[in-house]
Design goal:
With 190 residues, the protein is α+β, with helices and mostly antiparallel strands. It has 7 helices and 7 strands. It has a 7-stranded mixed sheet with strand order 2-1-7-6-5-4-3. It comes from Pontibacter lucknowensis. This is Uncaracterized surface protein containing fasciclin (FAS1) repeats. Pfam families: Fasciclin.
Length: 190
């Protein structure tokens, strides 16, 4: 009987020791993985650096995949807003097409892309973003939204056609962090 107790104690001690050793190894592996993650974060990469090919695309990824929004994407990059717009949101983004930017006076886009114009560019781009999701089906006359830059836009309907500040919504695209409403004019804050 005494030898049975000694044997059981030895087995229990062996199990506890092996579990602790396995836990220490798991902790070491987790610490290594965590340090690797922190090392990636130390390089200044934000949310936009997260690789995910399986989830629905966010507003920046959708715009970047559109041949009609290359100017908008370049402007978002120049303004330093990529990480902000890849965050969870939700966002309603009024996305001017390349043709919309082409309607601006000659030299305007080039001037806004210069580092010394970054504040003005950010103001214009943030005037195109609302925090929250407003699908086109919810647009109604006399609706007003407070935009990220502090300005306001007016939503409405021309017949069945949704508008923002009188500009028609050409298409609406749901994203993982909101919705994009494609427009053919650049909205300028007052």
């Amino acid at each position: 009987m005494k030898s049975l107790h000694v044997t059981l104690i030895a087995i229990a001690f062996g199990l506890v020791t092996s579990c602790n050793s396995a836990n220490e190894q798991d902790t070491a592996v987790a610490a290594t993985e965590s340090n690797t993650d922190h090392a990636a974060m130390d390089h200044g990469a934000g949310q936009s650096a997260v690789a995910d090919d399986q989830s629905q695309q966010n507003v920046v990824q959708v715009a970047a995949g559109s041949k009609d929004h290359t100017t908008l994407v370049a402007a978002v990059k120049a303004a330093g807003l990529v990480d902000a717009l890849t965050n969870a949101g939700p966002f309603t983004v009024f996305a001017p097409t390349n043709a919309a930017f082409d309607k601006l006076p000659a030299g305007t886009v080039d001037g806004l892309m210069k580092p010394e114009s970054r504040k003005d560019l950010r103001n214009i781009l943030q005037y195109h973003v609302y925090v929250g999701v407003i699908p086109a089906e919810r647009f109604d006359n006399d609706m007003s939204l407070g935009q990220v830059n502090g300005g306001r836009v007016n939503l409405g309907l021309e017949g069945d056609q949704p508008t923002v500040n009188g500009v028609k919504i050409l298409a609406s695209i749901p994203t993982s962090n909101g919705i994009i409403h494609v427009i053919d004019q650049v909205l300028l804050p007052q």
